[in-house]
Amino acid sequence: MELFLDLVFVYAFLSVTDLVAENFRIEGLFQGVLVVLLLWRAWSSYTVLGNLVRLDKGIMRPLIFGVAATILVTGIAAPVTFTDRPGGLFGPLIFVVAFLLAQLFALLMLTYTVSGGTRGPLLRAWLPFSGGAVLLLCGALLPRHLPAGVDGGSVQLALFFTATVVDFIGVRALGADNWRIVSVPHWAERHRLVVLIALGETIISIGTARGLIGDPPITWSVIGGSALSLVVVAVLWWRYFDIAGFAAEQALQRWPAATRSRLGRDAYSVLHVVMIIGLVLIALGLKRALSSVEPATAYRWDQLSTLVLYGGVLVYLLGLVALEHRTIRLLGRSPLLGIVLVTTLAPVAVRLPPVGAVGLLAAVLTSMVLADLTVFRRRHHLLHRQAAEAAIHAATTGVTPKELFLDLVVVYTFIQVTVLMTRHPTGVGVAQALAVLSLLWVAWSLYTQVGNVLRSESIPVRLSVLLVVALTLTIGIAIPQAFDVVPDGLPGPMIVVVCYIALRVLHLIALRLVVRPDRAPHARMLRAGVPTAAALVLLLFAALASSRPHAPEELSPLAASLWLAAIVVDLAGGYFVVQRFWQVSSAKHWTDRYALIILIALGESIISAGVAVFGRAISWSVIVASATSMVLLATLWWAYFDTDAIVGERVTQDRTGNQRAALARDAYAYLHLPMIVGLTLLSFGIRKTLDVVSDPSGPARTPLGHAILFAGVLVYLLANQAFWWRTRHQIRWVRATGILLVAILAPVTSPLPPLWALTILTAATAAVMMIDSHHAAELRRRLHEPPPSAILTSNRP
Predict the structure, then answer these.
(1) Which pTM was predicted?
(2) Contact at 8 Å (CB) between 504 and 454?
């Protein structure tokens, strides 16, 4: 539940870069920082709440779904926090009201769910909230009523700044001793995850730097700049998840309750927001750099862009140094070296072109890693041993940070699959997008299989993961051009296929290294590689057919046949020939990985909903459609995570040997693919619906968008039913009736306006899930208190 909420915050933080990009000057940067601080306060409120009570039980679930819808509206309104677009509702007021509602929900839930001696301080927390609310509302409304000679923008900025200061100082003045951290692992893991999510937002900014519309050519400068940008993000990820994140948790564990609360507030609630601000600035700087690599757009790269990029890295490293000093009393090593080098070389970088400036920054940050392995080697190894307990726990009990880092790149590739559908909104375009999605799924599931066996955080393993991330990012950049060639650009089909071949070859090498020779003789390994080789050869011929100069826009019958044959050979070969390699050593890790990919697909749908209304005036129709989309996504979340995910995990744990391998292959590696297909189709359908709702005079409604909206829900629910049958050998007749109802509603609602069709689909799906949930009450009681996900270890009540 908390991760679902975090995915909505992903979009909200992502929209801050759009706010600054529209007003790219010092004032705009200050506005962006204020919005980040406000969003952080909202996020941290729910982190405190989640540390005290379970958010996935009883009435808390629908309440959190309502909060998620509110945060989505906040993110949609974030780009117009300080301006307004004509033709719609007043943007600043929409942002302030949505933000205050999110904060109000958190305070109400904290006040009425926490009892005992902590309720008094919580009641006093209403004072800074009330003061900040008045200032924010004045900041939104007052500038419209000021005399003509008064600068309303400066007044508005001053009021927002004062409200932020009042909120932060007021909460700090309440004292850290007045609240307690119930679960240190949960508290630390929540903040590690938000840093990871912010890093993922930076990766999405890299991929979407040149926009989500049109067909800009892919050049070597684009690929090189993206690779260097990924090095920057990867090193920053490494700096935090190598030592600092785990050492801070162990330090928090050692202190008594009173000191622990103060340390948790300072090291996490305060210093982590500094790192988040740094990452938002880095995302903006990399976005500016990669959108300026072509001669026609080089004018966008200026001195301020360079300073934003280097300043973001500097802010992030300062926050990291402060975190290490506050928790483990460490001051020195490579982060300080990085601060010195970034500060020294920034004047040089302002004279370089964008790729050169990013390359210089990547070299500086890489030197930090090399310094830890050479100059500071002894000290670095000592710190590793001090943080070993928390790091080993994270590496052996759940999904590791490096796996989540890879998953965040998958978010971007899913977005690009939807972009491919949007650029080619025909049946052929949808088929092309699903073909690419199938390849991405095969590669991801195979690396999940290796990660389930290879539980290592060694440097070679991390470097291998970063190479996989780089190849996946490159595929994502080329996905919108996976079946055609844009003039003056590199052939998109060849980029996709060559990178995919590299991914599969790396997997075969990894499989050979992790599987014991006595369990998989050389001849069996060769047989396992035959279908893979055949599929890759077919894909290569298909790419050659699609990469011909002046090729028609429509995929040629030959290339289509080759793609289809390659996918069938790859999936069938993986099912029949490679079945002996589907061994699962950790059922918990395996099921968590697939649960997370479902969450990621839901998050991609959330981002698509926000992207559809970007740049449009905010109207009541947009707000209602966005909230309705969130309810629909929450309902589909409920369909999987209410009982199915828990039952699947329990059944997988109970099976052993070949039975567990067969279940892992069927129920997860293969039956989760149509779930992802359904959510991807739904993402496209929501995007097309919101596109029409947000601009009624713009694009006309198409029957394809309506059909795919309903088809996405149908495919997802059918796959969910098949998953249940494979794990429980039962048919849930309520859901089967619901699937039939959605199928009937698809043609019936076709003549209706898009918003009405979306509302009817959401109401029908929610009603079916409520009835099914009532019927599953006995099963839920038998499952009683399901163990929380290993990625969020919890001791909460």
Answers:
(1) 0.89
(2) no
